[in-house]
Design brief:
By secondary structure, the protein is of the alpha+beta class. It contains 17 helices and 8 strands.
Length: 434
Amino acid sequence: MLNWARARLDGLRTSLWLAPVLMFLLGVLLAVIMLRLGATWPRTGGVLHRWLVSGDGEDARNLLSTLLTAVISLAGIVFSVTVVSLSLAANAYGPRLIRTFRANRGTQLALGAFAMTIVYLLLVLRAVRGGAPPGEVPTGAVALGSLLALVCVLALVGFLQGVSNLIVADEVVRRVRREFDKVVDDLPAMAEFAAPGGWALPPDFEATAGRIRLPKEGYVQSVEYHQILCWAEAHGAVVRLDFRPGDFVVEGDRKVLVHPAPADPEAARREIGRFIVSGHGRTPDQDLEFAIRHLVEVAVRALSPGVNDPFTALAVIDRLRGGLARLMVRQMPSPTLADGDGELRVVRRVSDFGGIVDAAFDQIRQSGAGMPSVLIHLLRAIGDLAEHVRTEEQRHALTRHVRLIQPPAGPDGAPGDDQDIRHEQRRALAALAR
Protein backbone atom coordinates (compact mmCIF):
# COMPACT_ATOMS: atom_id res chain seq x y z
CA MET A 1 0.00 0.00 0.00
CA LEU A 2 2.89 2.35 0.79
CA ASN A 3 4.44 1.80 -2.65
CA TRP A 4 1.07 2.44 -4.31
CA ALA A 5 0.82 5.74 -2.44
CA ARG A 6 4.39 6.66 -3.43
CA ALA A 7 3.64 5.95 -7.09
CA ARG A 8 0.50 8.09 -6.96
CA LEU A 9 2.32 10.90 -5.16
CA ASP A 10 5.03 10.85 -7.82
CA GLY A 11 2.34 11.28 -10.46
CA LEU A 12 0.88 14.23 -8.56
CA ARG A 13 4.31 15.77 -8.01
CA THR A 14 5.02 15.80 -11.74
CA SER A 15 1.60 17.15 -12.77
CA LEU A 16 0.84 20.74 -13.71
CA TRP A 17 -2.71 20.73 -12.37
CA LEU A 18 -2.37 19.93 -8.65
CA ALA A 19 -0.81 23.18 -7.41
CA PRO A 20 -3.12 25.41 -9.55
CA VAL A 21 -6.21 23.52 -8.35
CA LEU A 22 -5.19 23.78 -4.69
CA MET A 23 -4.40 27.48 -5.05
CA PHE A 24 -7.67 28.00 -6.97
CA LEU A 25 -9.51 26.60 -3.94
CA LEU A 26 -7.39 28.81 -1.69
CA GLY A 27 -8.52 31.82 -3.74
CA VAL A 28 -12.16 30.84 -3.22
CA LEU A 29 -11.56 30.45 0.52
CA LEU A 30 -9.82 33.82 0.76
CA ALA A 31 -12.67 35.52 -1.09
CA VAL A 32 -15.29 33.99 1.23
CA ILE A 33 -13.35 35.00 4.36
CA MET A 34 -12.61 38.55 3.21
CA LEU A 35 -16.18 39.15 2.05
CA ARG A 36 -17.53 37.91 5.38
CA LEU A 37 -15.34 40.46 7.12
CA GLY A 38 -16.98 43.01 4.85
CA ALA A 39 -16.46 46.61 5.82
CA THR A 40 -15.42 45.84 9.42
CA TRP A 41 -11.79 46.84 8.87
CA PRO A 42 -10.56 49.92 10.84
CA ARG A 43 -10.65 53.17 8.88
CA THR A 44 -8.86 55.64 11.11
CA GLY A 45 -5.51 57.14 10.10
CA GLY A 46 -2.14 55.63 9.28
CA VAL A 47 -0.76 53.74 6.31
CA LEU A 48 -3.33 50.97 6.69
CA HIS A 49 -6.13 53.50 6.34
CA ARG A 50 -4.71 54.95 3.14
CA TRP A 51 -4.20 51.43 1.73
CA LEU A 52 -7.68 50.16 2.57
CA VAL A 53 -9.81 53.14 1.55
CA SER A 54 -10.87 52.67 -2.07
CA GLY A 55 -13.78 55.04 -2.47
CA ASP A 56 -17.35 53.96 -3.08
CA GLY A 57 -18.63 50.78 -4.70
CA GLU A 58 -18.16 52.05 -8.25
CA ASP A 59 -14.52 52.94 -7.57
CA ALA A 60 -13.91 49.51 -6.08
CA ARG A 61 -15.50 47.76 -9.08
CA ASN A 62 -13.40 49.79 -11.52
CA LEU A 63 -10.23 48.87 -9.63
CA LEU A 64 -11.14 45.18 -9.46
CA SER A 65 -12.08 45.10 -13.16
CA THR A 66 -8.77 46.68 -14.14
CA LEU A 67 -6.82 44.26 -11.96
CA LEU A 68 -8.75 41.27 -13.30
CA THR A 69 -8.10 42.27 -16.92
CA ALA A 70 -4.39 42.76 -16.24
CA VAL A 71 -4.00 39.47 -14.37
CA ILE A 72 -5.83 37.52 -17.08
CA SER A 73 -3.50 39.04 -19.69
CA LEU A 74 -0.45 38.08 -17.63
CA ALA A 75 -1.87 34.59 -17.14
CA GLY A 76 -2.13 34.22 -20.91
CA ILE A 77 1.57 35.03 -21.17
CA VAL A 78 2.43 32.45 -18.51
CA PHE A 79 0.39 29.70 -20.11
CA SER A 80 1.79 30.50 -23.56
CA VAL A 81 5.38 30.43 -22.31
CA THR A 82 4.67 27.15 -20.51
CA VAL A 83 3.38 25.49 -23.67
CA VAL A 84 6.29 26.83 -25.74
CA SER A 85 8.87 25.68 -23.18
CA LEU A 86 7.33 22.19 -23.07
CA SER A 87 7.43 22.05 -26.86
CA LEU A 88 11.08 23.14 -26.93
CA ALA A 89 11.94 20.61 -24.24
CA ALA A 90 10.29 17.79 -26.16
CA ASN A 91 12.13 18.69 -29.37
CA ALA A 92 15.53 19.32 -27.81
CA TYR A 93 15.71 16.72 -25.05
CA GLY A 94 13.02 14.18 -25.85
CA PRO A 95 9.35 13.87 -24.83
CA ARG A 96 10.21 11.81 -21.75
CA LEU A 97 12.05 14.81 -20.30
CA ILE A 98 8.78 16.78 -20.14
CA ARG A 99 8.25 15.03 -16.82
CA THR A 100 11.19 16.97 -15.39
CA PHE A 101 9.75 20.27 -16.61
CA ARG A 102 6.31 19.51 -15.17
CA ALA A 103 7.87 18.73 -11.80
CA ASN A 104 9.38 22.23 -11.55
CA ARG A 105 7.86 23.77 -8.44
CA GLY A 106 8.31 27.34 -9.68
CA THR A 107 6.16 26.73 -12.76
CA GLN A 108 3.45 25.05 -10.70
CA LEU A 109 3.34 27.89 -8.16
CA ALA A 110 3.29 30.58 -10.87
CA LEU A 111 0.31 28.95 -12.58
CA GLY A 112 -1.35 28.53 -9.20
CA ALA A 113 -0.82 32.18 -8.24
CA PHE A 114 -2.62 33.35 -11.36
CA ALA A 115 -5.47 30.86 -10.91
CA MET A 116 -5.90 31.93 -7.27
CA THR A 117 -5.86 35.65 -8.08
CA ILE A 118 -8.29 35.38 -10.99
CA VAL A 119 -10.92 33.45 -9.04
CA TYR A 120 -10.48 35.74 -6.04
CA LEU A 121 -10.96 38.91 -8.10
CA LEU A 122 -13.98 37.42 -9.88
CA LEU A 123 -15.73 36.53 -6.63
CA VAL A 124 -14.98 39.86 -4.97
CA LEU A 125 -16.01 41.82 -8.08
CA ARG A 126 -19.31 39.94 -8.15
CA ALA A 127 -19.97 40.78 -4.49
CA VAL A 128 -19.27 44.53 -4.66
CA ARG A 129 -22.33 46.65 -5.49
CA GLY A 130 -21.73 49.54 -7.83
CA GLY A 131 -23.86 52.02 -5.88
CA ALA A 132 -22.59 51.05 -2.43
CA PRO A 133 -21.43 53.94 -0.23
CA PRO A 134 -17.82 53.86 1.04
CA GLY A 135 -18.92 52.48 4.41
CA GLU A 136 -20.38 49.34 2.79
CA VAL A 137 -17.46 48.52 0.50
CA PRO A 138 -15.41 45.44 1.59
CA THR A 139 -12.20 47.45 1.60
CA GLY A 140 -10.12 44.63 3.04
CA ALA A 141 -11.15 42.30 0.21
CA VAL A 142 -10.37 44.97 -2.40
CA ALA A 143 -6.98 45.70 -0.85
CA LEU A 144 -6.09 42.00 -0.80
CA GLY A 145 -7.02 41.82 -4.49
CA SER A 146 -4.50 44.58 -5.21
CA LEU A 147 -1.88 42.75 -3.18
CA LEU A 148 -2.50 39.47 -5.04
CA ALA A 149 -2.15 41.30 -8.36
CA LEU A 150 1.27 42.54 -7.26
CA VAL A 151 2.17 38.99 -6.26
CA CYS A 152 1.25 37.86 -9.78
CA VAL A 153 3.63 40.42 -11.28
CA LEU A 154 6.45 39.06 -9.11
CA ALA A 155 5.39 35.50 -9.97
CA LEU A 156 5.65 36.34 -13.68
CA VAL A 157 9.20 37.66 -13.24
CA GLY A 158 10.21 34.60 -11.24
CA PHE A 159 8.53 32.30 -13.74
CA LEU A 160 10.39 33.79 -16.70
CA GLN A 161 13.68 33.53 -14.82
CA GLY A 162 12.94 29.91 -13.92
CA VAL A 163 11.97 28.93 -17.46
CA SER A 164 15.07 30.58 -18.92
CA ASN A 165 17.19 28.47 -16.56
CA LEU A 166 15.14 25.33 -17.08
CA ILE A 167 15.71 25.06 -20.82
CA VAL A 168 19.51 25.29 -20.48
CA ALA A 169 21.02 21.88 -21.23
CA ASP A 170 23.29 21.83 -18.16
CA GLU A 171 20.35 22.58 -15.87
CA VAL A 172 18.25 19.84 -17.48
CA VAL A 173 21.06 17.34 -16.99
CA ARG A 174 21.53 18.41 -13.36
CA ARG A 175 17.84 17.99 -12.55
CA VAL A 176 17.66 14.54 -14.11
CA ARG A 177 20.79 13.46 -12.22
CA ARG A 178 19.14 14.62 -9.02
CA GLU A 179 16.36 12.07 -9.54
CA PHE A 180 18.95 9.32 -9.88
CA ASP A 181 20.63 10.50 -6.67
CA LYS A 182 17.36 10.19 -4.77
CA VAL A 183 17.00 6.54 -5.78
CA VAL A 184 20.65 5.81 -4.98
CA ASP A 185 20.34 7.44 -1.56
CA ASP A 186 17.56 4.97 -0.70
CA LEU A 187 20.02 2.08 -1.08
CA PRO A 188 21.91 0.95 2.03
CA ALA A 189 25.60 1.72 2.36
CA MET A 190 27.85 -1.04 1.08
CA ALA A 191 28.56 -3.59 3.83
CA GLU A 192 32.15 -4.21 4.79
CA PHE A 193 31.60 -7.91 4.24
CA ALA A 194 29.21 -9.50 1.76
CA ALA A 195 26.06 -10.93 3.33
CA PRO A 196 25.90 -14.72 3.36
CA GLY A 197 23.84 -16.23 0.57
CA GLY A 198 24.11 -19.41 -1.43
CA TRP A 199 20.41 -20.20 -1.59
CA ALA A 200 19.21 -22.34 -4.46
CA LEU A 201 15.74 -22.96 -5.84
CA PRO A 202 14.26 -26.42 -5.27
CA PRO A 203 15.34 -28.85 -8.04
CA ASP A 204 11.76 -29.35 -9.19
CA PHE A 205 10.90 -25.64 -9.10
CA GLU A 206 10.25 -25.15 -12.82
CA ALA A 207 8.29 -28.39 -13.16
CA THR A 208 6.00 -28.02 -10.16
CA ALA A 209 5.69 -24.27 -9.55
CA GLY A 210 2.35 -22.63 -10.17
CA ARG A 211 2.39 -19.73 -12.63
CA ILE A 212 0.38 -16.73 -11.46
CA ARG A 213 -1.01 -14.26 -14.00
CA LEU A 214 -0.26 -10.57 -13.55
CA PRO A 215 -3.41 -8.51 -12.96
CA LYS A 216 -2.70 -5.34 -14.98
CA GLU A 217 -0.95 -4.09 -18.09
CA GLY A 218 1.61 -1.32 -17.83
CA TYR A 219 5.06 -0.46 -16.59
CA VAL A 220 5.90 -1.95 -13.21
CA GLN A 221 6.34 1.12 -11.02
CA SER A 222 7.02 -0.55 -7.68
CA VAL A 223 6.84 -3.92 -5.94
CA GLU A 224 6.23 -4.41 -2.22
CA TYR A 225 8.85 -7.11 -1.79
CA HIS A 226 8.50 -7.23 1.98
CA GLN A 227 4.78 -7.99 1.69
CA ILE A 228 5.46 -10.74 -0.86
CA LEU A 229 8.11 -12.14 1.49
CA CYS A 230 5.58 -12.20 4.35
CA TRP A 231 3.00 -13.86 2.10
CA ALA A 232 5.48 -16.53 0.99
CA GLU A 233 6.51 -17.21 4.59
CA ALA A 234 2.89 -17.52 5.71
CA HIS A 235 2.17 -20.03 2.92
CA GLY A 236 5.48 -21.91 3.21
CA ALA A 237 6.23 -21.08 -0.42
CA VAL A 238 9.01 -19.76 -2.62
CA VAL A 239 8.03 -16.95 -5.02
CA ARG A 240 10.01 -16.03 -8.13
CA LEU A 241 9.34 -12.72 -9.88
CA ASP A 242 10.46 -12.73 -13.52
CA PHE A 243 10.29 -8.94 -13.84
CA ARG A 244 11.59 -5.86 -12.06
CA PRO A 245 10.44 -2.25 -11.63
CA GLY A 246 10.62 -0.52 -15.00
CA ASP A 247 9.67 -3.59 -17.06
CA PHE A 248 6.55 -3.53 -19.23
CA VAL A 249 4.09 -6.31 -18.44
CA VAL A 250 0.79 -7.35 -19.98
CA GLU A 251 -2.31 -8.50 -18.15
CA GLY A 252 -2.17 -12.27 -17.98
CA ASP A 253 1.62 -12.58 -18.21
CA ARG A 254 2.71 -15.61 -16.18
CA LYS A 255 5.70 -13.94 -14.59
CA VAL A 256 5.06 -14.87 -10.96
CA LEU A 257 6.01 -18.45 -10.05
CA VAL A 258 5.01 -19.98 -6.71
CA HIS A 259 6.45 -23.24 -5.36
CA PRO A 260 4.68 -25.37 -4.34
CA ALA A 261 1.76 -24.51 -6.58
CA PRO A 262 -1.02 -22.81 -4.58
CA ALA A 263 -4.24 -24.73 -4.03
CA ASP A 264 -6.25 -21.66 -5.08
CA PRO A 265 -4.37 -19.90 -7.92
CA GLU A 266 -7.00 -17.17 -8.24
CA ALA A 267 -6.72 -16.23 -4.56
CA ALA A 268 -2.92 -16.18 -4.86
CA ARG A 269 -3.23 -13.97 -7.94
CA ARG A 270 -5.40 -11.46 -6.08
CA GLU A 271 -3.20 -11.41 -2.98
CA ILE A 272 0.14 -11.11 -4.76
CA GLY A 273 -1.29 -8.70 -7.33
CA ARG A 274 -2.00 -6.19 -4.56
CA PHE A 275 1.74 -5.88 -3.97
CA ILE A 276 2.61 -5.02 -7.60
CA VAL A 277 1.95 -1.45 -8.78
CA SER A 278 1.73 -0.89 -12.56
CA GLY A 279 1.00 2.32 -14.42
CA HIS A 280 1.15 4.14 -17.74
CA GLY A 281 4.80 5.15 -17.42
CA ARG A 282 8.02 4.39 -15.61
CA THR A 283 8.83 6.18 -12.36
CA PRO A 284 12.13 6.58 -10.49
CA ASP A 285 10.81 4.70 -7.46
CA GLN A 286 12.80 1.41 -7.27
CA ASP A 287 13.93 1.85 -10.91
CA LEU A 288 17.66 2.60 -10.95
CA GLU A 289 17.82 2.83 -14.74
CA PHE A 290 14.99 5.37 -15.06
CA ALA A 291 17.02 8.58 -14.63
CA ILE A 292 20.06 7.00 -16.30
CA ARG A 293 18.08 6.45 -19.49
CA HIS A 294 16.79 10.03 -19.40
CA LEU A 295 20.34 11.34 -19.14
CA VAL A 296 21.44 9.07 -21.97
CA GLU A 297 18.55 10.28 -24.12
CA VAL A 298 19.78 13.86 -23.76
CA ALA A 299 23.28 12.80 -24.83
CA VAL A 300 22.11 10.68 -27.75
CA ARG A 301 19.95 13.51 -29.10
CA ALA A 302 22.86 15.92 -28.72
CA LEU A 303 25.08 13.57 -30.74
CA SER A 304 22.55 13.11 -33.54
CA PRO A 305 23.56 14.58 -36.94
CA GLY A 306 20.71 17.08 -36.83
CA VAL A 307 21.86 18.59 -33.52
CA ASN A 308 25.62 17.84 -33.38
CA ASP A 309 26.15 19.26 -29.88
CA PRO A 310 28.99 17.26 -28.29
CA PHE A 311 29.31 19.69 -25.37
CA THR A 312 25.92 18.62 -24.00
CA ALA A 313 27.02 15.00 -24.34
CA LEU A 314 30.19 15.79 -22.38
CA ALA A 315 28.07 17.35 -19.62
CA VAL A 316 25.94 14.20 -19.50
CA ILE A 317 29.05 12.02 -19.21
CA ASP A 318 30.25 14.14 -16.28
CA ARG A 319 26.91 13.73 -14.49
CA LEU A 320 26.87 10.01 -15.21
CA ARG A 321 30.32 9.70 -13.67
CA GLY A 322 29.12 11.50 -10.55
CA GLY A 323 26.04 9.31 -10.28
CA LEU A 324 27.98 6.08 -10.74
CA ALA A 325 30.52 7.17 -8.12
CA ARG A 326 27.66 7.57 -5.62
CA LEU A 327 26.25 4.20 -6.62
CA MET A 328 29.56 2.39 -6.19
CA VAL A 329 29.53 2.89 -2.40
CA ARG A 330 25.98 1.54 -2.10
CA GLN A 331 24.77 -2.02 -1.72
CA MET A 332 22.92 -3.18 -4.83
CA PRO A 333 19.58 -4.96 -4.23
CA SER A 334 19.91 -8.68 -3.56
CA PRO A 335 18.21 -11.07 -6.03
CA THR A 336 17.11 -13.30 -3.13
CA LEU A 337 15.16 -12.61 0.05
CA ALA A 338 14.96 -14.95 3.04
CA ASP A 339 12.68 -15.09 6.07
CA GLY A 340 13.73 -14.78 9.68
CA ASP A 341 14.76 -18.44 9.80
CA GLY A 342 17.08 -18.08 6.82
CA GLU A 343 14.76 -19.91 4.42
CA LEU A 344 14.70 -18.70 0.81
CA ARG A 345 11.32 -17.11 0.09
CA VAL A 346 11.62 -14.65 -2.81
CA VAL A 347 13.75 -14.70 -5.95
CA ARG A 348 13.56 -11.50 -7.98
CA ARG A 349 15.12 -9.75 -10.93
CA VAL A 350 17.18 -6.75 -9.89
CA SER A 351 19.49 -4.23 -11.48
CA ASP A 352 23.17 -4.99 -11.04
CA PHE A 353 26.10 -2.63 -11.45
CA GLY A 354 27.05 -4.05 -14.83
CA GLY A 355 23.56 -3.41 -16.17
CA ILE A 356 23.58 0.16 -14.86
CA VAL A 357 26.94 0.84 -16.54
CA ASP A 358 25.64 -0.68 -19.79
CA ALA A 359 22.59 1.59 -19.66
CA ALA A 360 24.83 4.60 -18.99
CA PHE A 361 27.56 4.10 -21.59
CA ASP A 362 26.42 1.77 -24.39
CA GLN A 363 24.32 4.20 -26.44
CA ILE A 364 26.65 7.14 -25.85
CA ARG A 365 29.61 5.06 -27.05
CA GLN A 366 27.68 3.92 -30.12
CA SER A 367 26.31 7.38 -30.98
CA GLY A 368 29.67 9.05 -30.39
CA ALA A 369 31.70 6.47 -32.29
CA GLY A 370 32.67 9.08 -34.88
CA MET A 371 33.47 11.84 -32.37
CA PRO A 372 36.93 11.47 -30.79
CA SER A 373 36.24 14.20 -28.21
CA VAL A 374 33.30 12.21 -26.83
CA LEU A 375 35.23 8.94 -26.75
CA ILE A 376 38.21 10.57 -25.03
CA HIS A 377 35.97 12.18 -22.42
CA LEU A 378 34.17 8.89 -21.85
CA LEU A 379 37.49 7.10 -21.30
CA ARG A 380 38.62 9.79 -18.87
CA ALA A 381 35.36 9.49 -16.95
CA ILE A 382 35.72 5.71 -16.64
CA GLY A 383 39.36 6.05 -15.64
CA ASP A 384 38.45 8.56 -12.93
CA LEU A 385 35.85 6.11 -11.59
CA ALA A 386 38.65 3.62 -10.87
CA GLU A 387 39.41 5.20 -7.50
CA HIS A 388 35.80 4.55 -6.42
CA VAL A 389 35.87 0.82 -7.22
CA ARG A 390 34.82 -1.34 -4.27
CA THR A 391 34.12 -4.76 -5.83
CA GLU A 392 35.43 -6.94 -8.62
CA GLU A 393 32.04 -6.70 -10.31
CA GLN A 394 32.50 -2.94 -10.59
CA ARG A 395 36.07 -3.30 -11.84
CA HIS A 396 35.04 -5.85 -14.47
CA ALA A 397 32.11 -3.77 -15.74
CA LEU A 398 34.22 -0.63 -16.15
CA THR A 399 37.13 -2.51 -17.74
CA ARG A 400 34.78 -4.07 -20.25
CA HIS A 401 33.57 -0.66 -21.41
CA VAL A 402 37.11 0.69 -21.70
CA ARG A 403 37.97 -2.18 -24.06
CA LEU A 404 34.79 -1.62 -26.10
CA ILE A 405 35.79 1.96 -26.96
CA GLN A 406 37.78 2.03 -30.20
CA PRO A 407 39.10 4.90 -32.35
CA PRO A 408 36.78 5.87 -35.22
CA ALA A 409 37.52 4.10 -38.46
CA GLY A 410 37.52 5.63 -41.94
CA PRO A 411 37.42 9.37 -42.70
CA ASP A 412 36.22 10.25 -39.17
CA GLY A 413 39.50 9.09 -37.68
CA ALA A 414 42.81 10.97 -37.66
CA PRO A 415 46.25 9.77 -36.52
CA GLY A 416 46.34 12.26 -33.66
CA ASP A 417 42.87 11.30 -32.48
CA ASP A 418 43.79 7.64 -32.62
CA GLN A 419 46.83 8.24 -30.42
CA ASP A 420 44.84 10.30 -27.90
CA ILE A 421 42.15 7.64 -27.61
CA ARG A 422 44.71 4.86 -27.22
CA HIS A 423 46.53 6.89 -24.57
CA GLU A 424 43.35 7.46 -22.54
CA GLN A 425 42.43 3.81 -22.96
CA ARG A 426 45.78 2.69 -21.54
CA ARG A 427 45.49 5.18 -18.69
CA ALA A 428 42.00 3.95 -17.78
CA LEU A 429 43.03 0.29 -17.91
CA ALA A 430 46.06 0.99 -15.73
CA ALA A 431 43.91 2.82 -13.17
CA LEU A 432 41.40 -0.04 -13.07
CA ALA A 433 44.17 -2.63 -12.71
CA ARG A 434 45.49 -1.14 -9.46
